Amino acid sequence: MDIAFESVGNISDDIKDEPEFTEHNFKRYRLPRANKIQYKKICAKEQKNASLKKIALILQKCSSDRTFDEEKVLNDCSEEVKEVRLRWRRRDEAKKRLEEFEDPEDILKIKCERLAQAIAQAQHLVVYTGAGISTSAKIPDYRGPNGIWTRLQQGKDIGNHDLTLAEPTYTHMALYELYKRNILKYVVSQNCDGLHLRSGLPKAVLSELHGNMYLEVCKNCKPHKEYWRPFDVTENTSRYFHKTFRKCYMCNGPLVDTIVHFGERGTLQWPLNWKGACKNAKNATTILCLGSSLKVLKKYPWLWQMDKPVKKRPNLYIVNLQWTPKDECANVKINGKCDEVMKKVMDCLGKNLSLFIFILYIS
Ligand SMILES: [Zn+2]
């Protein structure tokens, strides 16, 4: 009893100590204007979300199962109903964009012929490559359903992949062949696997925008001293930590890898060679994108000559199994595996190259 009495006494004391809630006091405790607006916005957003959630639950029901009141809510909130349906549509589209899809054989053949013709007639062909060109070399791609990024997003293990055992794929060799025939002028690659160089493509016609796992450099030496290794130099490196723990034999400075991770800004001249990529993107009459989701490359407007009027921009051809943000701008989008597409394209070029070149010279 004593305890109960004591506690009641305390509560009343607390109440007594509280300041009287007059209009004058309220003004003193008022939130700053900016916070008040922010608070109102948050409340409105929460209210709207709750209302959309309620409507979504009703819409999920079969119309025959809805009560009279639920039907009334749908009728009274036509704007919210529209918004829920729009959100569902967007969610389905985003899901669909991640799906891999292959063109039927007959369509693939026609598209490959068109691509072969465009390649043969290109005055300055530049190719942008992504992880999709190395998947047949047993290197996992990045954003595909089983790619490294996708698996990391899903909290799954990415396993061990010994990239040093990878060999250039048919696509790498086809690009080298096009370079030798003086058709392909430049390659901009997002891959770090070094397979373009191993295919024979010279360093001078290649930008490895995200680095090369076989190259470590000394930044103390000017120009940077390069060390090409027959092994993966990134074993001890990570995002924001690039020291490989080996030393430069010229100056004894620390060696660093050349990999550009997410959120990092690559500044090395080699193997990134942004200057070469800029110059060739500017001169490109035809751009071929192979095995890239283009989610990173789309952020560089100069790669697509976006400063020029639409009609003066280069012809664009895209080969990728998934949707890319540049599909709508492409002359032809081929949903196919890079090696299969390039085999068909090289077959066409082998048969028809001299004819295409003849047409080009007389036109
Ligand atoms: Zn050095």
From TrEMBL:
Keywords: Metal-binding, NAD, Phosphoprotein, Transferase, Zinc. Zn(2+) binds at residues 218, 221, 248, 251. Its cofactor is Zn(2+). One of its GO terms (biological process) is regulation of gene expression. Residues 105-352 form the Deacetylase sirtuin-type domain. Its EC number is 2.3.1.286. It is an enzyme of class 2 (transferase). It comes from the Eukaryota. The active site is at 210 (proton acceptor). SUPFAM superfamilies: DHS-like NAD/FAD-binding domain. GO terms for cellular component: chromatin; nucleus; site of double-strand break. InterPro entries: DHS-like_NAD/FAD-binding_dom (IPR029035), NAD-dep_sirtuin_deacylases (IPR050134), Sirtuin (IPR003000), Ssirtuin_cat_dom (IPR026590). It catalyses: N(6)-glutaryl-L-lysyl-[protein] + NAD(+) + H2O = 2''-O-glutaryl-ADP-D-ribose + nicotinamide + L-lysyl-[protein]; N(6)-decanoyl-L-lysyl-[protein] + NAD(+) + H2O = 2''-O-decanoyl-ADP-D-ribose + nicotinamide + L-lysyl-[protein]; N(6)-propanoyl-L-lysyl-[protein] + NAD(+) + H2O = 3''-O-propanoyl-ADP-D-ribose + nicotinamide + L-lysyl-[protein]; N(6)-succinyl-L-lysyl-[protein] + NAD(+) + H2O = 2''-O-succinyl-ADP-D-ribose + nicotinamide + L-lysyl-[protein]. PANTHER family: NAD-DEPENDENT PROTEIN DEACETYLASE SIRTUIN-7, NAD-DEPENDENT PROTEIN DEACYLASE SIRTUIN-5, MITOCHONDRIAL-RELATED. Belongs to the sirtuin family. Class IV subfamily. This is protein acetyllysine N-acetyltransferase.
